[in-house]
Amino acid sequence: MAKFILSTLYTALLLPIYLHWSRQQTEHQIDKMQEAVFNTPGAEAIVTAPVLLGGVMLLIFHFLVARRALNLKTWQGILSLFVSIGVGLGIFMLPTQNVQ
Fold this sequence. Notes:
Shape: elongated
Helix content: over 70%
Radius of gyration: 17 Å
């Protein structure tokens, strides 16, 4: 159980960092596209290659650690990924909540 929690925890903590970075990269790319063609999307992709590579690497890193380092079964690794995505998105969305 501790291995499952550890596998979930590190991915849940890395996901908000990745999401914040990827949002900044995408907004920068949109600004660059708007400057180039004056509010008309050009031939460039909105999601850049480093953002895609970062997402893929996060998934690969999760499964490598879950399967190789922590010796979790495949279904436990997948379940850990889904739980960590939920927790990570919750952590990412916390600062955007309006607290009054």
